[in-house]
Design goal:
Length: 322
């Protein structure tokens, strides 16, 4: 049944990807300009961040505030390889994910072996990691050195910055792969192990679940996607500075999107990312720009009070009713 479900899921993701791939051509045919392509790019970035945060933190219960660090590492890895090393864009983008995953793997090797770093202490540690990485980047000359990094004149970057179409397709592919992996993890023994860790890690250990291996592997995979999608974001911005790349609002927004959509179901963060991105876009227009953070904060509070399982949890509860 799992294999059949996986095949159906793969078919569904293929159809969704095909429709989304056709969207830029449809938008251009209707004469709607590049706004919708840029909006699609932003949605795919946040879908990837929310989903990749969730299939580690949501599934295992280890709430990470360091997801923004991996996102920023992805941006600066891409920028450094393009500007300092003249590496082709097609190679720099995957390397951004690899560097973030290696750092997460190294951190996991140490932290997850120590039982005291559970719950709140793990969250604080990952938050501190963001500030440490940002400080290092800001003080190393060949990374940033405090003056920021310009990407616009890097070799081979022009086709990616002249318009957002390539960025749209790159982030679409990344988001689809990330969501499909979240779906696959959710429906396999891997997901069952993470849920067991979330429910009671000591009991899971006692039952023979290799919790350390699952935690380290999933944490590294989560970081890989955060770093991977940081590459297109760096190209989109064209100029990087540590205050923007490692902003603390990035992991908080990813967490908020996952909880709003429903952290207990695989598609919940997708719903949350789409809704919050559209809401932010709507509220940054004209005279309502100052309402952005207030409105999103209110939505988040109301969700916690009246829909603690998020939109996805509400959908699943209704589906299970006789």
């Amino acid at each position: 049944m799992i294999r059949g479900g996986a095949r159906r899921g793969l078919l569904g993701f293929g159809l969704a990807g095909g429709l989304l791939a056709l969207l830029p051509g449809l938008v251009a045919g209707l004469g709607l300009g590049s706004f919708w392509t840029t909006l699609g790019f932003q949605i795919f970035v946040w879908v990837t961040l929310a989903v990749s945060w969730n299939f580690f933190s949501g599934y295992s219960g280890y709430a990470s505030f360091g997801h923004g660090a991996f996102f920023g590492i992805g941006m600066y890895t891409t920028a450094t390889l393009l500007v300092r090393g003249s590496v082709p864009v097609a190679l720099a983008l995957p390397m951004a994910g690899v560097v973030a995953a290696v750092l997460a793997w190294l951190v996991g090797l140490v932290v997850f072996r120590l039982p005291q770093f559970r719950g709140e202490l793990f969250s604080l540690l990952t938050l501190a990691m963001t500030f440490i990485v940002a400080t290092v980047v800001n003080n190393v000359d060949w990374l940033d050195g405090g003056g920021g990094v310009f990407l616009r004149e890097a070799p081979g970057i022009a086709p990616w910055t002249d318009n957002n179409l390539r960025l749209y397709y790159a982030t679409l592919a990344i988001a689809l792969l990330c969501v499909y992996l979240a779906y696959a993890i959710y429906h396999t023994r891997w997901g069952q192990a993470l849920f067991a860790i979330r429910d009671d890690e000591d009991v899971a250990d006692g039952l023979g679940v290799p919790t350390l291996r699952y935690k380290i592997g999933t944490f590294a995979l989560s970081a890989f996607f955060a770093g991977l999608v940081g590459g297109p974001q760096a190209l989109f911005l064209g100029y990087l500075e540590t205050a923007t790349a490692f902003a603390v609002t990035i992991p908080l927004l990813a967490l908020m999107m996952a909880i709003l959509g429903g952290a207990t179901v695989w598609y919940g963060p997708v719903l949350g990312a789409v809704l919050v991105t559209l809401l932010r876009q709507l509220l940054t227009q004209g005279e309502t720009a100052e309402l952005n953070q207030i409105a999103i904060g209110l939505v988040f509070i109301l969700t916690i009070l009246f829909m603690p399982q998020g939109l996805g949890g509400l959908i699943e509860a209704r589906r299970q009713r006789p």
